[in-house]
Specification:
Blueprint (H helix, E strand, L loop, with lengths): L15 H12 L2 E7 L12 E6 L5 H9 L17 E6 L3 E5 L10 H16 L4 E9 L6 H13 L3 E6 L6 H16 L9 E2 L8 H15 L1
Parallel strand pairs: 2-4, 2-5, 5-6, 6-7
Antiparallel strand pairs: 1-3, 3-4
GO biological process, one term: division septum assembly
Pfam family, one: MMR_HSR1
Cofactor: Mg(2+)
Length: 223
């Protein structure tokens, strides 16, 4: 089921204590660990992980910066394919956050794009501490063929994922409701998809707290 949205696309959490904890987790003591191009270089240990995936230029870096209240924690660029490795961030020693290379179109040599794609596939299929992938979809364009390919791979690997619509503020209210409904219907067809679709805007802050709450819940489950 899609989470209820306000006119700007935000899901409205109503538990003040849980929200305060979620904000602390995602905004305090968040630090960059390293970028890796080989799975063997990823941190070991038992910390649960979340990952952010999405097409090139979907607004992933902007969303991570809004989530963590950092302007430059994740690098942003108008050039698709800027993220070229698995970027690892630590959230207060409770959770690792992985920023994955964008898939689909990228202004880079074909061999490099293929290498990024292979890295993403290997990571998604072989990381047991991965609790959930937040799959970002541009609200203006909806679910595309390469999104469905990733969704199919996640279904096959039995990796839980949650669809997060980005740039919801770029749509009018009636279009927001339509896109949410269409995306919810798409998610229902995928067994590994988490049933709640989040609608966010990095620019306006819509839906960011709902995303924080989802992440905090995963951290508690992994404790």
């Amino acid at each position: 089921m899609a989470a209820p949205a306000d006119p700007d696309g935000a899901q409205e959490p109503d538990d003040a204590e849980a929200l305060a904890e979620a904000r602390r987790l995602t905004t305090q003591d968040v630090s960059f660990v390293k970028g890796v191009v080989d799975l063997g270089a990823l941190p070991g240990g038992a910390l649960p992980e979340i990952a952010f995936a999405g097409r090139s230029n979907v607004g992933k870096s902007s969303l991570i910066n809004a989530l963590t209240q950092r302007r430059t924690l994740a690098r942003t660029s108008n050039t698709p394919g800027r993220t070229q490795e698995l970027n690892v961030f630590d959230m207060g020693g409770r959770l690792l956050m992985i920023d994955m290379p964008g898939y689909g179109f990228a202004k880079a040599p074909k061999a490099k794009v293929e290498a990024w794609t292979r890295l993403v596939r290997l990571y998604l299929r072989g990381r047991p501490q991965l609790r959930r992938v937040f799959l970002l979809i541009d609200a203006r364009h909806g679910v595309k063929a390469n999104d469905r390919e990733i969704m199919g791979m996640l279904n096959e690997a039995a990796v839980s994922y949650q669809v997060v619509l980005t740039k919801i503020d770029k749509l009018k209210g009636t279009d927001q409701a339509r896109v949410l409904a269409e995306t919810e219907a798409e998610a229902r067809r995928n067994p590994a998809a988490y049933p709640v679709v989040l609608a966010t805007s990095s620019e306006k802050g819509a839906g960011i707290d709902a995303l924080r709450l989802a992440i905090a819940e995963l951290a508690r489950e992994g404790a």
